[in-house]
Amino acid sequence: MGPLGGISVIFDLDGTLVDSEPHYYEAGRRTLAEYGVPDFSWADHEAYVGISTQETVADWKRRYGLRATVEELLAVKNRHYLGLARTSARAYPEMRKFVELLAGEGVPVAVASGSSPEAIAAILARTGLDAHLRTVVSADEVARGKPAPDVFLEAARRLGTEPARCVVLEDAAPGAAAAHAAGMRCIAIPYVSGQADAPEFATAELLVRGGQEEFTARAAHDWLRTDGNATRETI
């Protein structure tokens, strides 16, 4: 069966592997300010956690009545974001340990993210995670972003793994929904603690209610080894 019973692990990037949501918020705040929307708040940003950058700016265009094209908004937001990511992207220490633990055992791993290919590459290079995470799928490369399953199904295809053999790590409700729709098991680590009771997280096989503060590489690895094929748990 191979390592961990033939399981492959697919990681969401933003808010799961890397504490990048503050950078996405700041990039969004700067972008909207340029287009005459001066009061974009963190609470406003939280509504977009887990949704692709392209779908986020398309919603901004509608919501704020912006005259710029989606393509222009996307380019401006990505430019702001890349400037922040290249200088200060930070991987969660326990997530880094988990990636290294899996890679050391030869477990196939991938990233499936709503961010642009350029943003994903910049973050992985900045954090050094690119040494282990070489299979990468952006929502820009598939028909639909999360909560549709497309990015996860494409990651499984590139890994050569059946979806049922994949375990997804996700911090956001749309991502947990996408994993479920893909027929994959999910370890959910909610980024927004107030969303831990969201119905999408109820589909996860392992829910770490306390988010990154409670996640440990060893506990996740132990769950994969012993319970990854079994019942739903909450810790």
UniProtKB/TrEMBL annotation:
Q: Which NCBIfam families match?
A: HAD-SF-IA-v3
- One Pfam family, short name: Hydrolase
| Name recorded for this polypeptide | HAD family phosphatase
